[in-house]
Structure formats: C-alpha cells, structure tokens
C-alpha cells in the first residue's frame, strides 16, 4: 500500500513578491539604475557648460533628453536585461514551480517598476538637486521637481508592462527593439492632435508641460496650448495602459519556436565525430582567434547599440543645425560609446578568460584580437557618424577632421578603458570613465578649453583645427599602441588570477 505525497503548497502573492525581489538582488537589474545617476551627472555638467544667467525653468528644460529618450530606453533595457538573464538561466528552475502565472507576472512588474522609479529619481533628480544647491535661482520648486520625476516614471509603466508581456514569448532583443520603436513613435507624435487615441504618445505627452519644452527640446512658447496643459491626463493614461498587459495571458507559441527562444540546446556528439565545420576549426595549428573573438561579441548588446546610436544622431540632426551639434558626438556620444564598448567587450569575454588562455594561442593573441575588434568598431562608428553629419549638411572640410579625430581618439579611449577593466575591475573603469567624461564636457564645452585642453583626453575629439590635431593625433596613436601592449600583459595576469 502506498501513501500519497502531500500536495505542494502554492505560494501566495506576498511570497512570490519576496522571492522575486530576492531573485534580482546583486544582479545587473539592481545596478542598472546607476546609469540614471551617470546620465544625471553628465547632464548637470552639460548645463553648467552653457554658462551663467539661467533660472529653474532652464534647468527643467534640460530634462528633455532624459524624459523623451534616455529614461524610456533605460526602462526598456531593464526589461530586456531581466529577460536575457532569465532566459540564459532557464528561469533558475522557477518556470517549473507551482506558482500562479498572474502572481509571477505581477511580481516581476512590481520589481521592475520600483527599479524604474529609482532610475528616474537618479536620472532626473540628480541635476535638479545639484543645480539647486549651487544656485538659488536654479532651485526648482518642490512640486515641479516632484512632477519632473513622477510624471515620466508613471508614463513609462504602460510601456514597461507591454515589454514585460512581450518578454514572455519573445527574445530579449525583440523586447529592446520594441522599446526603441515605442519610444521613437512617442517622440515623433507627442504633440499630435490625436494623442488621446495613440497610446505611445502617452509616454511623453505628460512630461512636456512639466519641463516646458516641445518634444524636440525647443522651449514652449507662452501662447502654446501645452504650456498651460495639465500633465496628469496623459500620465494617468500611460500608467493605466499597464493594466490590460498585466491581464493578458501568454501566447501559446509552437513548441519548436518556444524552445529556440528559451534555450539554445547543444548538438549531441555523434559516433561519426564532429560536424565538418567544427572539425575545420578544431584542427591543430589553425586557430581562428579573430573570428572567435568577433563571434563572442556578436551576441552582445553591441549589435543593437551601434545602429541605435547612429539612428539617434540622425534623428537629432533632423531637428538641429549639424554645425552646432558636433559636440553631441565629440563630447558625449564618442566618450560614452567607447566606455560602453570596452565594458561590454570585456564583460562578454572576461568570465571565460582562463579557459581561453589555456588553449594553444595563449592569452596574448586573443587579447590582441579583442583590442583590434573593439578599436575597429570604435573607428567604424566614427567614420559612419561623420558621414551622417556630412549628409546632414556640414562641409566636407569639417567632415574629414571629424572622422579622423574620432577614429584616433575613439581607439585611444576604447583601448584605455579595456586595459583598465582587465587590469583592475569594471567598476573602476566605470568611475574613471564617468569622471573623464564630466571633465571632458566641462573643458571641451566651455572657454576652459583654451588653456586646459591638452590635459583632458576625453575632450580631444572636439578639437578639429589642424593646430591641435597635430598634437592629439600622434599622441592618440602612441597611447593606443601603449594600451594595447598593456592589455596583453594584463590579460595574462587576468588568466592566472581568474
């Protein structure tokens, strides 16, 4: 006679919430809101670089880039990051536990919504706090400051729920792409007369009267209807949009498609030996190091970050004068891009570096290949973006110095950050990069460049006159070679210590 096992109790909502918070503790999802702090500090430096004589309305107007693009995209990145971690770990075995799907979905939404709130608090609140403490005329009233944080966050909840629902049946790359499309549609149509029936406009419409600008960053006119509009109708619509997506069930996809999305099963070895392509790569004396390193980076966020950056610059240039917008690339996009590029590259390869170094090529050749691939990406991006500026209308005499200087300085900053990440930690590289970017903006964007420009390499891409290029280009090439040499030595030590 057998005894039936007691039924496993089904966790309630509170237990599911506690488990969800514990799941993401010390993960990238927890630390991603620090990106809001980094942007807030850079935005503060950019505001200070524009000179004195501004009041609190100008401070709010400088929140446009955060409210319209950076904040929503970082929220989308939160969902995509959680999706990728969950898919890679196959749910950490939680997919097969007796938890009610609505509880699991609501718990995930709650965790990410609170992370998004922290993200907006750091991204929008940091400039308001710092600038208000520095100058009484720039101190934003408390109610407007609270709206500058709460309105963008609440408006993003509908998009967050939409992306979270998509994440239940699609890969993380689709989630991120959907977030980008939703954000762009919101920016382009935010001031449409039909905004009440266009859900993507609810993402941005409420923030415009709070920050006092049009969607393109131009200050609202005194007679504009948006200037006196209430931000709350659009904000509440954006928040309520989350309700239907929280209630929607997961789509039932074909089993084969779902398997491809959730896992990438390895091919079982056969008695006949490896496949011909595998055998070709496995032949002794023929290691394809460069191809292997490039393949490692192919599945990272670089595959969407690079085209998204080009699209963002092209969108910006469609609204702004390209000659006066060169600093957007030279002082912000290039330094931040090289920082992210090096961090993503080492993050993708560093965990298995000991195994890489134990193979025939050793650690030096893969390190050189990694340096070559990353600096090559930085150089290619600089050339493509210079062509975008050329197509937007800058003279050819300005385009070639922009491409050449961007290539050299981009390679230098990328190799420096990569060396620092390998030699120390990625946290140190992030801190050094943020400080360097801030000083680059403060010096390169103000009159301080007249005397301090040789001391701040993060601002060198901004100097396109032949007099200063005669110094920055040779020094940049020499520094890249020096950091490449340092990377090979640091990579050997990293393999020994990992």
Keywords for this entry:
498 residues; mainly alpha; 69% helix; globular
* Alpha-beta content class: mainly alpha
> Secondary-structure element sequence?
HHHHHHHHHHHHHHHHHHHHHH
Radius of gyration: 25 Å
Number of E-type strands: 0
Note the gap between the termini. 55 Å
Q: What percentage of the residues does DSSP assign to strands (E)?
A: under 5%
Quaternary state of this entry equals single chain
Determine the number of helices (DSSP H or I, runs of at least 4 residues): 22
Describe the structure concisely for a colleague.
It contains 22 helices and no strands. By secondary structure, it is mostly helical.
Describe the structure.
- The protein is mainly α.
- The chain is 69% helix and 0% strand.
- It contains 22 helices and no strands.
- It has helices at residues 13-23, 28-31, 34-49, 56-61, 64-88, 101-134, 142-167, 172-189, 207-211, 232-240, 242-247, 255-262, 276-282, 289-298, 302-317, 326-349, 353-357, 364-392, 396-423, 426-444, 449-452, 466-497.
- Helix 3 (34-49) runs parallel beside helix 20 (426-444) and helix 5 (64-88) packs parallel to helix 7 (142-167).
- It is globular and about 55 Å long.
Could you give the topology of this structure?
Layout: H1 13-23, H2 28-31, H3 34-49, H4 56-61, H5 64-88, H6 101-134, H7 142-167, H8 172-189, H9 207-211, H10 232-240, H11 242-247, H12 255-262, H13 276-282, H14 289-298, H15 302-317, H16 326-349, H17 353-357, H18 364-392, H19 396-423, H20 426-444, H21 449-452, H22 466-497
